[in-house]
Amino acid sequence: MSAANSEKSVTKPIGRPFVKGQSGNPSGRPKSALVSEAYRAKLASGDPTVAERLADMMARRALKGDVAAAKELTDRAEGKARQAVELSNPDGSLASAIGIESAVKLLALRGITVVKSE
Questions:
Q1: Mean pLDDT of 99-113
Q2: Strand, coil or helix: 31
Q3: Helix, strand, or coil here: 88?
Q4: pLDDT confidence tier of residue 87, bands split at 50, 70 and 90
Q5: Domain segments of the chain: what residues?
Q6: Which of 55-64, 93-102, 107-116 has the highest mean pLDDT?
Q7: Most buried of 6, 51, 52, 106 (most Cβ within 10 A)?
Q8: Directed axis angle between helix 67-78 and helix 48-63, to 10°?
Q9: What is the DSSP string of the chain?
């Protein structure tokens, strides 16, 4: 191995590029992006034709067979469909109450609502 290659491997951080206990992003994720703010301003401009034209465009795409456009329209108009999730242990038994509560919290963080069934 040449001296240049050994220097590169020594200076390159391995494993943890940040100092332990210190956030790599102390400011956190920005609350709103500039593009999102521009979109909101355009839609809130008082010109209803902007939102209507967007809705018309999505409807035309959906009617031409664009599945993503159809899904977007139905999700916006009727809300996202519920998804059933069964939580069980590897042996097939239902997960314990503590395990279920933890799983429900994790699923909620991902935007999934859990409905209890009997």
A1: 74
A2: coil
A3: strand
A4: low
A5: 36-78, 82-118
A6: 55-64
A7: 51
A8: 130
A9: --HHHHHHHHHS--S--S-TTS-S-TT-S-SS-HHHHHHHHHHTSS-HHHHHHHHHHHHHHHHTT-HHHHHHHHHHHH-PPP-----B-TTSSBPPHHHHHHHHHHHHHTTPPP----
